[in-house]
Amino acid sequence: MTRQTALSGIHESLGASFTDFAGWRMPLRYGSELAEHHAVRNAAGLFDLSHMGEIEVVGPQAAALLDHALVGDISAVAVTKAKYTMICQEDGGILDDLIVYRLEDDRYMVVANASNAETVLGALQERAAGFDAEVQDRRDDWALVAIQGPQASAILAELTDADLAGLKYYAILETSVADRPARLARTGYTGEDGFEIFSDPADAPAIWEALSAAGADRGLIPAGLACRDSLRLEAAMPLYGNELSTTTTPYAAGLGRVVKLDKPGGFVGRDALAAVSEQPIQRVRVGLRPEGRRAPRHGYAVVDPASGETVGEVTSGAPSPTLGHPIAMAYVDQALAQPGTRLEVDVRGTHVRAEVVALPFYSRHR
Amino acid sequence: MSTIPADLKYTKDHEWVRIDGDVATVGITQFAAEALGDVVYVDLPEAGSTITSGETCGEVESTKSVSDLYAPLTGEVTEVNAAVVDDPSLVNAASFEGGWLFRLRVEDGLGDLLDAEAYRAVVESA
């Protein structure tokens, strides 16, 4: 059965084209996804992310439970801060990538991808055994609206008394937006400045409408999942199911920094990940810049032109609206992973030349 | 409801055809362009090549996906639209006019092309 978010009626009235994503009927785009992408980079975009899965972990041993269940040092996260982390299997394979927000000493909010929320919930509940803490499924209690782009802060400032200048990247506040209670986080998946606003689903339409009105003369437009994908790809952010999966470890993805092997008490997957961290990695994540205008797509083979051998596989690829040429991420043999290496991608039977480039493709700080 | 000009012919694969004597102009319909999203690249048959009705003769690529282009008729390709190769967004902006893809000299009759009403039925059941 397909689920809908509290904003579904609004999306219909805006003329959205819908897609099924992880069992949710979500807006793919409202008009032109290229226009939505450019709006996020140059002004602001408004996203409905209510399909994401919020799980709260509460109790005197909430921190200890999360240190045990996840790969990162969660107990070191200060109250009002957040951390990007992962939950892995015993064998080190990635179950999901997550953002964990510490709301209080003993209260955390874990946000999982829609496609993995059920799995993450189950794993956390299992791993909670023996800890004085509770894992609560809060998925239906929270809607999520994101405003992303250089104008996001100016627009949001009209609707909240929260100190936005003081709210740093990867921090969260409990406040109000458009007079509705909200958890306001400075996080996002676009490579731009922006905010993620967690609210009661009943309040989400009012928050959405208020942001739309406040942003109308600053170029804010609604933005769907299509441009969300091209934005995160330009910023080289991994997508679970593409760059991350149970057959990948954080190290292969170039995200070994999220693993804290020396946490006292260990954690699920520790021994396997320690072993992986000590071996040379066979295939690592790289950026590719192909020649021409055709985009390599998920699953396409990466070939070494010198030998004709397949040396990797594309995980994500698309035309880059901001850069004006195709870009792709791939896992490629370690020996061929240096920026400048010339490879080829098999694009539906044609070998297209592609060069390894440093990630990210786009950064707002350049 | 997307536009379906009454004076054109269509295929079930969402191509449109304008017949002018023995020359056919071919494009993809607005319905197809809307389903694809922003078109970023078109791969068209070469002028001088012969294409065969029902066989793939190129590709239309959007930000998210690639769709095969099927030859609606058999014949020799006489002209390719350089403007759409340069600016694939014409397929979205002007599917039936500036976004035309190629022309061919028809060699084997007009076959089973659909009229506008029949194509509308295809779209409505899609």
UniProtKB/TrEMBL annotation, chain B:
Domain of life: Bacteria
Required cofactor(s): (R)-lipoate
GO BP annotations listed: glycine decarboxylation via glycine cleavage system; protein lipoylation
N6-lipoyllysine, modified sites: K64
Keywords associated with the record: Lipoyl
Lipoyl-binding domain mapped to chain residues: 23-105
CC annotations in GO: cytosol; glycine cleavage complex
CDD domains associated with the record: GCS_H
Family (UniProt): Belongs to the GcvH family.
Role this protein plays: The glycine cleavage system catalyzes the degradation of glycine. The H protein shuttles the methylamine group of glycine from the P protein to the T protein.
HAMAP family in the record: GcvH (MF_00272)
NCBIfam families, sorted: gcvH, PRK01202.1
Name of this protein: Glycine cleavage system H protein
Gene: gcvH
